[in-house]
Write a structure and sequence with these properties.
cell membrane, 3 helices, FluC, elongated, single chain, membrane, mainly alpha
Amino acid sequence: MNTRNRTLMQSAVAVFVGGCVGSFVRLVLEAMQPASAVWPWMTMIINLTGAFLLGFLLEFLGSTGATSARGGFSGSRWALG
C-alpha cells in the first residue's frame, strides 16, 4: 500500500471513528433531556458545539499551514464558503 492510499485509509477510519463517537455522545446527551421539554435544547447545544469545533479546527489548520501541497485541506477550501 503506497503512502497516498494509506493516508486515505487513515482519514476514512478517523472520520468513521469520529462519527461513531459523536453519535454516541448525541444519544447520551439527548437521553438526559426530559421528555416534557418543549424545545430540543440538547440537539441545539450539540449542533452549536459541533459547528464551533469545526470552525475552530478549520481556522487552526488554516493558520498553521497544515495543508497538503497536492489538494488536501486547501483543495477542499471551495466547499467552505
